[in-house]
Amino acid sequence: MLIKAKILKGYSIESKEDETIGKVEEFYFDDRHWTIRYIVAHTGSWLSTRQVLISPYAVEAVNADRDNIVVNSTKKQIEGSPLLENEKPISRQFEEHYYGYYSWPRYWGGLYCWGPSPYIDRNRDWNAFTPDDKKWDHHLRSTREVSGYHIQAEDGEIGHVEDFIIDQETWAIRYLFVNTHNFWPGKKVLISPQWIGHVSWSERIVTINLSREVIRQSPEFTNESLLTRDFETSLYGHYNRKGYWVDELVSK
């Protein structure tokens, strides 16, 4: 299921023991696979001087009917986990310590967005997996930071990043939700990270390898109910691109 990041923001985070851990504040994603690596939890007075990070590995369920995310970690376990001081960057050393604490496989040690697979597989025998020696030097970005970035087509600007469409099964960012009201009033556009040619993080510009006119004629996105596989197939078909789900089905 696909869902907007802004819808998830504000969801309560609960343990399986019905302990309230906090609320979703924002997300950190990597700039290679564009996959969510951490949910940042706002905990109020509890651990208020630290960033509480929740990996998708911990997520058991996302409940839209209850506006909550259930995780398999207890409040006590999270309190004992590696925590970041507020506003501090996430280093590789921190991630090694964090993933070691929970005994999770390192996502940066394989070909796919979750190491050996595009999917989070908690039942796999990870001890039998030998990480790829060619580890990639990833950088983590926040959804709060990237919101507002300008979207540049091959022949001019089309709008700015307003939101992110997240796949709840893989936690990949499937689309940037682009606000184009200054150029095409009323038109809502979805752009896949697969179509990005370059990102200037210093200038806050995302360049797309498509023309403005081709993007303008793309299937119109009106609301979340249209985020079906049929809609995605028509969107990818318009751009004459292979859907992301094709390669992922092969790798399963």
Please describe the structure with a list of short key phrases separated by commas or semicolons:
about 250 residues; alpha+beta; Photosynthetic Reaction Center, Chain H, domain 2; 2 domains; eight-stranded mixed β-sheet; seven-stranded mixed β-sheet; 7 helices; 15 strands
Helices and strands in order, then pairings?
Layout: E1 2-4, H1 5-8, E2 12-15, E3 20-30, E4 36-42, E5 50-54, E6 59-63, E7 68-71, H2 75-79, E8 84-85, H3 92-102, E9 140-142, H4 143-146, E10 150-153, E11 156-167, E12 173-179, E13 188-191, E14 196-200, E15 205-208, H5 212-216, H6 229-238, H7 244-251
Parallel strand pairs: 2-7, 10-15
Antiparallel strand pairs: 1-11, 2-3, 3-4, 3-9, 4-5, 5-8, 6-7, 10-11, 11-12, 12-13, 14-15
Describe this structure as you would to a colleague:
By secondary structure, this protein is of the alpha+beta class. The protein has two domains: 2-140, SH3 type barrels; 147-251, Photosynthetic Reaction Center, Chain H, domain 2 (Alpha-Beta Complex). The protein is 19% helix and 32% strand. The protein contains seven helices and 15 strands. The strands form two sheets. Strands 2, 3, 4, 5, 6, 7, 8 and 9 form an eight-stranded mixed beta sheet that branches. Strands 1, 10, 11, 12, 13, 14 and 15 form a seven-stranded mixed beta sheet that branches. The radius of gyration is 19 Å and the shape is globular.
Question: How is this structure best summarized?
Answer:
The protein is an alpha+beta fold and 252 residues long. It has seven helices and 15 strands.
